[in-house]
Amino acid sequence: MIRFLLLFTAFFAAQTAFASDNFLGVPRFKGVKPVFNSNYESSCGECHFAYFPGLLPGRSWKKLMDPKALEDHFGENAELEEPDRLEVLNFLVRNAADQSHYKRSVKIARSLRDGSTPLRITEVPYIKRKHSEIPAKMIKGNKKVRSLSNCLKCHTQAKEKGIFDEDTVSIPGYREWDD
Amino acid sequence: MAHPQVVWSLFVRIFHWSLVILFVLAYITSSSGDDDWHMILGYAVTVLLVARILYGLFSSGYGRFSRFIYSPKVIWSHAKGIVQGKPAHYEGHSPMGAAMVFALIGCLLTLVFAGLIYQSWGEYEGPLWWLGFMPADGFAHEMWDLHKWLPDILIGLIVLHVLGVLLACVQHRENLVRAMVTGKKCSGE
């Protein structure tokens, strides 16, 4: 019995050590770090909400923020003045998923361990997998959502707190998402 | 009536009641958004199950698996006896009770297995992830679904289990719930 209890304790200790990305001390935060930068908001928050930097790794932001890439940004022109571009890029890379100790960012970074560089958050394996069971009629076929890229339509606490937890999701036109 | 004797060892009793508590908590945390707690509870259930299996293989008391593996014929005649109001008495697990034990343990093992697979695939966390095991998409989806509906099957089994125990209490005039606390059961009748 005592051996069993010891085993039990050892198992838990091991789990806690593994689960926290920074071992003892630094806590593992929920969600994605809700950071704001007024230059970023005004430069990139016009056509869609200014996605949190913690939703993509630094290398993705660098590729997206390349001056050439900004000229053809998913078919739109999102060009910026050079000082603005550099400030925004710096802000994004500093707070990127691979620099973060926030739970969702850590998972995004882990799911990209193969070194790929997605240009879309919706193409990050972790984000893709998490939404793979939502029927298309609730996203593409849903006039109030249209695209999975519109995170805020369903994630009610994402904008202020960076929280994406399942129990804070509400898909417009459908009752509280429960499963 | 014969003298009560200890039938359920301390291990079996602790196993039983911790499983009850952990299952309830895991069920609650599955929809409350406490994902981290849900995973810890899942690990705890896994550890309990593994311990119970080792105990069932290597101990020598009434909790040893080989002491309550009955043939389908015996289970069937035990069931008939219950329906006819003349149930045979067993000191340890009765054939119907034993069938329930294996059904519950089997479902729970499948449930924690599916949970661990989904955790690695969808959460990028947990023992399988740390071991570098990444299941294929199709398989992971099936395990994800399974992990969502199996608990309801388990609740059904638990209801049957409780009803079965209550029926046995009445038929044998013995408080079997207390027996799972004190370990003592009357042998023979």
Write the layout of secondary structure elements.
The complex is a heterodimer of chains A (179) and B (189).
Chain A: H1 2-19, H2 38-44, H3 58-64, H4 67-71, H5 82-94, H6 103-111, H7 125-130, H8 151-154, H9 158-161
Chain B: E1 4-6, H1 10-32, H2 35-58, H3 72-83, H4 95-123, H5 126-130, H6 137-172, H7 176-182, E2 184-186
Antiparallel strand pairs in B: 1-2
Helix pairs in contact in B: 1-2, 2-4, 4-6
Architecture overview:
- The complex is a heterodimer of chains A (about 180) and B (about 190).
- With about 180 residues, chain A is mainly α.
- Chain A contains nine helices and no strands.
- Chain A has helices spanning about 1-20, 40-45, 60-65, 65-70, 80-95, 105-110, 125-130, 150-155, 160.
- In chain A, helix 3 (about 60-65) packs antiparallel against helix 5.
- In chain A, about 25% of the residues are buried.
- By secondary structure, chain B is mainly alpha-helical.
- Chain B has one domain: Up-down Bundle (Fumarate Reductase Cytochrome B subunit).
- Chain B has seven helices and two strands, in the order E-H-H-H-H-H-H-H-E.
- Chain B has helices at about 10-30, 35-60, 70-85, 95-125, 125-130, 135-170, 175-180, and strands spanning about 5, 185.
- Chain B has a two-stranded antiparallel sheet with strand order 1-2.
- The longest helix of chain B has about 35 residues, at about 135-170.
- The model of chain B has no long low-confidence stretch (mean pLDDT about 95).
